[in-house]
From TrEMBL:
Record-level Gene Ontology MF annotations: DNA binding; DNA-binding transcription factor activity
GO biological process, alphabetically ordered: response to stress
One Pfam entry name: MarR
Assigned keywords, A-Z: DNA-binding, Transcription, Transcription regulation
Species, as recorded: Halobacillus mangrovi
Annotated SMART domains: HTH_MARR (SM00347)
Top-level taxonomic group: Bacteria
This protein's name: MarR family transcriptional regulator
InterPro entries, alphabetized: HTH_MarR-typ, MarR/SlyA-like, Tscrpt_reg_MarR-type_CS, WH-like_DNA-bd_sf, WH_DNA-bd_sf
Residue intervals of the HTH marR-type domain: 15-147
């Protein structure tokens, strides 16, 4: 196959176009969500930790990073900041001294309770460019793409 034929084949392949469009959409959506969260004095990582604790209860510090896709070294920093703001507290595990849990405080719960109605509306506004049916279809397609990408990573 000539170099020109390879170039033509690549131009016809939608893979790169999908990657570019997906990346641009993700960045645009993330920027809008970040702006919304910053109105409450939080960054997206702090919000992610609080949201996790709010919805799923106390979590071992070691597991938080996995659940919100954050490097383990950054967890301590984020938890320290949230603890200083009195939004969460550390609770030692009585059975295993190596494990410490993060627990949302009443102040943190009140904050998220106040944030969620407006934040939900903002997410709805951001995604209103799609119908509900298109959203469901996009969810399924992106799950499929993500699962396949994870399998590729594990196979490496």
């Amino acid at each position: 196959m000539s170099e020109q034929d390879m170039y033509r084949k690549k131009k016809e392949d939608p893979s790169l176009k999908l990657f570019v469009v997906l990346s641009k959409a993700q960045r645009a959506i993330s920027d809008l969500v970040k702006d919304d969260i910053q109105r409450y004095g939080l960054n997206p990582t702090e919000f992610g930790v609080l949201e996790l604790l709010y919805h799923q209860g106390d979590q071992p510090l070691q597991k938080i990073g996995e659940k919100i896709l954050l490097a383990s070294g950054s967890i301590t920093y984020v938890v320290d900041k949230l603890e200083k703001k009195e939004y969460l507290e550390r609770i030692p595990c009585p059975e295993d001294r190596r494990i410490t849990y993060a627990a949302i405080t009443e102040k943190g719960r009140d904050l998220l309770h106040g944030i969620f109605p407006d934040h939900w509306k903002q997410i709805e506004a951001i995604t209103s460019g799609l119908t509900d049916e298109e959203k469901v279809e996009a969810i399924e397609l992106l799950k499929k793409l993500g699962t396949y990408a994870d399998q590729q990573k594990e196979g490496s």
